[in-house]
TrEMBL record:
<dbReference type="InterPro" id="IPR050245">
    <property type="entry name" value="PrsA_foldase"/>
</dbReference>
<dbReference type="GO" id="GO:0003755">
    <property type="term" value="F:peptidyl-prolyl cis-trans isomerase activity"/>
</dbReference>
<keyword id="KW-0697">Rotamase</keyword>
<dbReference type="Pfam" id="PF00639">
    <property type="entry name" value="Rotamase"/>
</dbReference>
<dbReference type="InterPro" id="IPR046357">
    <property type="entry name" value="PPIase_dom_sf"/>
</dbReference>
<protein>
    <recommendedName>
        <fullName>peptidylprolyl isomerase</fullName>
        <ecNumber>5.2.1.8</ecNumber>
    </recommendedName>
</protein>
<keyword id="KW-0732">Signal</keyword>
<dbReference type="InterPro" id="IPR000297">
    <property type="entry name" value="PPIase_PpiC"/>
</dbReference>
<feature type="domain" description="PpiC">
    <location>
        <begin position="117"/>
        <end position="201"/>
    </location>
</feature>
<keyword id="KW-0413">Isomerase</keyword>
Length: 249
């Protein structure tokens, strides 16, 4: 990459040892990739003007003073102002077709659940008694959780979450996904514990415009990260060989 040609073997070696090489490569890769994204001229100008005005650079004099103080060129400021717009456009062009499969793959992590839980260690009879008391509305879930639960939810009156569904135990996930909100579920045994559960709320993620952008950006970040790893390893190996050759002379 041309922007990294200024780095000699010693500099690359220092960056690698300080765990800074990959971060630098990622930043330069992003700039290089996004700089090639074409933006409609009218949209480009309005975006740059909005950025300049919002940062108090609404006159040529103020802009020139800012550039001088920060050792920057006008093109660099414009590229910064357009970075979000270019990123969105690049993701839309290159990753939009992969968004739906990505969403389905991660849906359990995106769905958010809140549930009430009482867990008892190896006591199925007590668990069933608690279930029947809750089912008949003889007692409140929070009261029984505080009295009997043997997990950290004892301190929160049984409430767990909000959290991503896949943070729960794998055997608990189907109960959270399929359980009706507000319904006490019969006791189950999971990992030696007997659980009584009630789903309080379940917010299923939707593939709306916001989520599409989020998924596309994740795909972009992963793609950049993979390229950065390859390039960082290449630079590291070349620098190592150069230093070894220099020592041999």
């Amino acid at each position: 990459m041309k922007s990294l040609d200024c780095l000699n073997a010693t500099a690359i070696n220092v960056l690698q040892k300080s765990n800074l090489l990959k971060s630098l490569v990622i930043a330069e890769l992003r700039k290089e990739v996004l700089s090639k994204v074409e933006i409609d001229e009218q949209l480009k100008q309005s975006t740059v003007n909005k950025f300049l005005n919002s940062n108090g650079l609404d006159s040529e004099e103020k802009l020139n003073k800012f550039l001088e103080q920060n050792f920057m060129k006008k093109e660099e400021v414009e590229n910064f102002a357009l970075s979000s717009l270019r990123l969105k456009e690049y993701c839309n062009i290159n990753f939009s077709k992969k968004v739906e499969s990505r969403f389905l793959e991660k849906k359990n992590h995106l769905d958010i659940v809140v549930y009430s839980l009482i867990r008892l260690n190896n006591d199925p009879f007590k668990a069933n008694e608690i279930y029947l008391r809750l089912k008949s509305k003889e007692a409140e879930f929070g009261d029984l959780a505080t009295l009997y639960s043997e997990g950290p939810e004892k301190k929160t009156r049984g409430i767990v979450g909000p959290l991503p569904v896949d943070n729960a135990h794998p055997n608990l996930i189907p109960m959270l996904i399929n359980g009706k909100e507000g319904e006490i579920q019969p006791p189950v045994e999971i990992a030696g514990m007997h659980l009584v559960l009630r789903v309080e709320s379940y917010d299923a993620a939707k593939l709306d415009d916001f989520m599409r952008e989020k998924m596309a950006l994740e795909l972009f970040d992963e793609w950049i990260d993979e390229k950065a790893i390859d390039l960082s390893n290449q630079l590291r190996d070349e620098a190592r060989e150069s230093l070894i050759e220099g020592q041999a002379l």
